[in-house]
Design goal:
mainly alpha, 2 helices
Length: 66
């Protein structure tokens, strides 16, 4: 995923998490506000640290019919 898309998605996730945590009409319970923030931060960090799953070039072999 390109870095500009990651940055935009990170900002969006953080804004939504902050809105859910601090908005008084939020659908989440107030005692779970910190959990929502920590989960959002974890997802953002994981997206930046772990690479995307994919097939390396040359690793995909055609199966021979038996």
């Amino acid at each position: 995923m390109p870095n500009d898309v990651k940055a935009a998605l990170s900002a969006l996730v953080l804004v939504v998490a902050l809105a859910l945590a601090y908005w008084h009409g939020s659908p989440i319970r107030p005692e779970f506000a910190n959990f929502a923030l920590y989960t959002a931060v974890f997802m953002i960090v994981a997206m930046w640290i772990f690479p995307e799953a994919g097939v390396k070039q040359g690793a995909l072999k055609k199966s021979d019919p038996a």
